[in-house]
User: Fold this.
Amino acid sequence: MAKITGVRCIRTRKNGTWTIVKVTTDQDGLYGIGSASDLYNPEAVVQVIEQLLAPRIVGRDAAHIEDLWQTMYTSGYWRNGALLQTAIGGIDMALWDIKGKEAGLPVYQLLGGACRSAVACYGHAGGSDIVQLKEEVHRYLEEGYTVVRAQLGGYGGGGFVPGDRAKLPDNAWRTDAVFDERAYLNAIPDMFEQLRVAFGGGIPFTHDVHEHLSPILAIQLARRLEPYGLFFLEDALPPEQIGWYRQLRQTSATPQAIGELFANPQEWTPLVAERLIDFIRVRVSKVGGISAARKIAALCEAFGVRTAWQEGGENDPVNQAAAVHLDMAVWNFGIQEINHFRPEEKAAFPGHIERRGGYLYTSERPGLGIDIDEALAASLLGEGWSRSIYHQPYTLDRKADGTLVRP
Assistant:
């Protein structure tokens, strides 16, 4: 069997925000790639991979995926943090890629084979007002999507009040636009009322609260959205307040999806075991890769919870490929979040996942079916880019009195 000879990180995209892990072996031409991208802490993940994990696995048998995962999981003693899980996830994907290439089979075949012919995905429709939103929804439906996410602009859209109309304090910390929970609580049900009038009751819609509401108002929103038959309401509550899902479930039948900020099993396990959510929304790389995500899917199947792996606009084509291979093999698949890439980005990742209409398709090549053209990947980097200086903190919203809104 193949022995691991090296683990290398390849930074790409304009600001180096994509981190692709390449695991090489002693077999000529046999290697695997995985995703370890983190928009906000990219260099930290690279250092975890290069300084902590790589020395532990070089020289090991690449086929021992589970044992290698457990080795990496405990290698830093403190575990279940987002950075370590992302680093493990990138290597884990690469190991599955290698195993598939050795077997001459796509990864989903190694996970049990296809449970479906293609992977349904949902479009992201947004508009600064209801007119633009309706146009976006119509466009996605025309393209063949069967599920559409509806947002009034960015996250929290519908709840922002311009500074000149908000009742700001004299020493306001923010004067352009501030978030108002009550405005949001009224705007979103009204948005769906108008969408149902325009498109009827047969279109499954989702909506992302993005944790902008206090718990009791999140419960009120879920109740007020019941008549509109959502496919799911996403991230109604932040990870710090997941205990409120018990009250939410008792008072509302609106389907709930959560998980894109999860990295620790103690975050999702109670929600799944108590049947408090309907969709698990973790990102494959953020929970430790394919090995971890397939265990999460198995846990969810036992409790009637479906998968809806998170992508996000900053994510890369390799994580998308890993998610779609899981989607193909997991019986309790629900929906896959879509991600769009520029033509030059697709060119740097031959064998990338293809979207046709509202469905995603694997390349059917062995392994993850996706590769990286390192020369083209390097050309994506912006002029003057440096891995040592790039850092981009998350942009936060504030209320009128200056209080931060947690994402």
Notes: Residues 82-103 form the longest helix (22 residues).
